[in-house]
């Protein structure tokens, strides 16, 4: 028979055992919860890391695509001296500068870059750059100088020299044309020279008493300069068999073929002859007429 005491001890023992089991179950549940939490946390971390890696990968791919896209596009090119020369030429910026008001001193400096020295091997003389193109420069001078050589050497105001080709001379007037190929010098050198600025309206208004000056190359390119006035804008000279500009202005040997300019810096004629303190210049209209005729014959 079991006594009450034993029964109480047994009941106490059962209670303790149940309590222990409850604690054990609770502990197991807690451990499972913690384990599950850690598992989910690690999973989320991995996903976040994967996403970041993917984002980095996508970014790199985008960069590669951008680089490829840029590489496929044409790059902005740097300009060359040829581009600069042709740009200045086509904009009309290689003409000599002219003035709004008469100023002989300033006009002299403006026109010097269009004057050259011509060496025929036997004689020296002067010349005027009358036109510039993409591939050639054209110089006019007196026939009595140019008919001594088919390949005259031309020295420009920047001290550069190139061999030209005589295209021809006028049958009627004392003028001829020399062509200098652009390939004879660097484009940067060509950009330093100028061709003469002409204005036929100003020329037609030329009258006696107007200021003028001569520029030639006897003592160096464009180093010979003399000032004066117009005596007669159109006077017939038998020795030249043509009408000339008669100037009250000194000129010396070696200036033949050089430029005659007004006080604004416009070309009005070509220095052709002189006697004591007077000189004669082939007028602009004849220069332009014969230049056009000689150039036109090249296509025949």
Explain what this protein looks like in three dimensions.
The structure is a single chain. The protein has one domain (84-299): Thrombin, subunit H, CATH 2.40.10.120. It is elongated and about 135 Å long. It has seven helices and 13 strands. The chain has helices at 4-72, 81-90, 104-111, 143-146, 187-190, 200-204, 284-296; strands at 115-119, 124-132, 136-141, 153-155, 161-163, 165-169, 176-181, 211-216, 224-237, 242-248, 259-262, 267-275, 278-283. By secondary structure, the chain is α+β, with helices and mostly antiparallel strands. Strand 2 (124-132) and strand 3 form a beta hairpin.
**Amino- and carboxy-terminal Cα gap:** 152 Å
Q: How many strands, which pairing sense, and closed or not: the largest β-sheet? A: 7 strands, antiparallel
Under the CATH scheme, the architecture is Beta Barrel
The coarse overall form would be elongated
Q: What's the order of the H and E elements?
A: HHHEEEHEEEEHHEEEEEEH
Which CATH class applies here? Answer: Mainly Beta
Number of helices: 7
Total domain units: 1
Uncertain runs: 1-15, 41-63
How large a portion of the residues is in β-strands, by DSSP E? 25-35%
Number of strands: 13
- Helix and strand content put the structural class at alpha+beta
CATH topological fold name: Thrombin, subunit H
The average pLDDT value, as a whole number, equals: 83
């Amino acid at each position: 028979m079991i006594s009450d005491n034993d029964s109480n001890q047994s009941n106490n023992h059962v209670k303790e055992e149940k309590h222990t089991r409850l604690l054990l179950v609770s502990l197991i549940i807690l451990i499972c919860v913690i384990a599950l939490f850690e598992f989910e946390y690690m999973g989320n971390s991995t996903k976040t890391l994967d996403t970041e890696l993917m984002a980095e990968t996508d970014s790199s791919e985008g960069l590669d695509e951008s680089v490829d896209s840029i590489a496929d596009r044409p790059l902005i090119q740097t300009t060359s001296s040829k581009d600069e020369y042709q740009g200045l030429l086509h904009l009309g910026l290689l003409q000599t500068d002219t003035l709004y008001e008469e100023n002989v001193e300033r006009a002299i400096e403006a026109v010097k870059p269009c004057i050259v020295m011509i060496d025929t091997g036997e004689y020296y003389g002067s010349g005027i750059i009358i036109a510039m193109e993409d591939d050639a420069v054209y110089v006019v001078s007196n026939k009595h100088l140019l008919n001594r050589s088919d390949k005259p050497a031309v020295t420009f105001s920047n001290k550069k020299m190139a061999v030209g080709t005589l295209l021809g001379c006028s049958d009627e007037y004392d003028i001829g044309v020399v062509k200098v190929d652009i390939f004879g010098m660097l484009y940067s050198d060509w950009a330093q020279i100028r061709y003469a600025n002409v204005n036929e309206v100003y020329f037609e208004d030329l009258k006696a008493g107007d200021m003028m000056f001569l520029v030639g190359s006897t003592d160096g390119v464009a180093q010979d300069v003399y000032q004066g006035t117009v005596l007669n804008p159109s006077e017939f000279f038998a020795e030249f068999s043509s009408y000339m500009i008669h100037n009250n202005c000194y000129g010396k040997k070696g200036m033949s073929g050089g430029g005659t300019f007004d006080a604004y810096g416009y070309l009005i004629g070509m220095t052709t002859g002189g006697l004591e303190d007077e000189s004669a210049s082939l007028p602009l209209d004849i220069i332009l007429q014969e230049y056009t005729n000689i150039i036109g014959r090249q296509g025949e």
